[in-house]
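idk why but the lab printer keeps eating my pages so im just putting this in chat instead. protein + zinc ion:
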Amino acid sequence: MPLVNCPECSRQVSTAADACPQCGHPMQPASPAPVGPKCHACAAAATTRCQRCGALSCVQHLQSIYVMHGRGAYELRCERCYSDAKFFKALSGVLFGVFILLLLLFLLVQLFLGT
Ligand SMILES: [Zn+2]
Ligand SMILES: [Zn+2]
Ligand SMILES: [Zn+2]
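predcted complex ->
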């Protein structure tokens, strides 16, 4: 049976041993090191994260969107936060349109009934 030197206590240990019988140092190569955090949407390693909810993500599953808080800036969003932001953008667009319409209507009514 081949012997190797324990890196911990430098005694000879069988390569078949799971751990050094002297000091308990593990002798078997550790199972593949856990890869870094995974993307929330796929199996790729996460390299970045959503700037809204903090979801870990790969590059493909983040979208950059222009947000209007502060001076306005591009932020990276996961797909869910991205569609949320899109929805609110659309919603505020519609609300703004309705507001303008009501304003015009109000002005027209003033024009016809006024004075
Ligand atoms: Zn040892
Ligand atoms: Zn991904
Ligand atoms: Zn998110």
